[in-house]
Structures are given as structure tokens and as C-alpha cells.
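Question (not urgent): is this output format expected?
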Amino acid sequence: MTLQIPRDAETTAGALAKIVQTLGSGDVKSGVALAAQITGKSRWTVRAWMDPYKDAEPGLSCAAALDTAYFTMTGEEPPLYRLYGDTVSVQTHGAHGSHTTDVKDQMLRLTGDMGELAMELTRAEEEARKTRRGFSPGSIAVVTAKADRIRDRLAGIVKGVRSWSEAVR
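Got this back:
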């Protein structure tokens, strides 16, 4: 069984549909059954939560249970948690929620990456001095990979700051 009604991923119904499809390994019917079992609610209630045309949403304990199950299966950020964080970011003009958390997390990781790059460059320079041959292909590959990771983190920070700025408008 598949979902027939289109759902916006940035809504509770969309986040729940993602969780249910994941729980059922692509099969909505079995995902609904498992979600009902996890939350202690009926299948009808779970289906109502996923319906974008119904004014029904899970309570906090049910949402947390479903997000936990999703995280346990995928290791990825739980959809309802992310939606909640985005909502809080918008409502607090970026003072709290996922936008500030993402940017701060990226900044911390960037700092660590830059430290690793500095240590790797130092090690490569010492190796080059000892061998008098310049940087080895291995050192170049490692330094390049670390520099690429820093570039990606910087791009993530810029993206986070932009989305944070848009949330405040």
C-alpha cells in the first residue's frame, strides 16, 4: 500500500508519512500498524495524523516515541524533531531551535577540522623536510580531503546563516 495524498515534507503530516514509510520499510500499511503499536494508539488515529486535511497531530510523547523509532532504524535526524526545531527557530526569530543549533554545531566541527588540518600540514611539512622530496602523494590526498571537509562545513554554515536570516524576516 502506498500514500495516495501528496504531503508537504515540512508539515507534521509529511514528517509522519516519512516515519511510517520508514517503519514499514516502504509499506505504509505495516508502517501504520507498527506506529500504532509504538504509540499505543489505533491505526485510524495514526492515519488521521498523516492526513494533511485533518486537524489531528500526535502528542509530545507519541511524537517522541515515533522519532526515537525512526532514529533507531536509520541513525538519521528524526523528522518530527527537525520540524519542531524549525518551527521554534521561526517563532523565536532564530534565537532558539534548529537554525541556531545547526550553525553552532557546524562552527564547533569547523574548529576541530581546522585543527586537524593544521596538524596534518605540520606533519606533511616535517615529512617533506626529512625526505627532501616535497609533499608525498599520500600527504597531498589527506590534506586535500581535510580542506574539502572544511570547505563543506563552511558552506553548511553559510547555508544555515542564510536560512536563519530568512526565518527572521
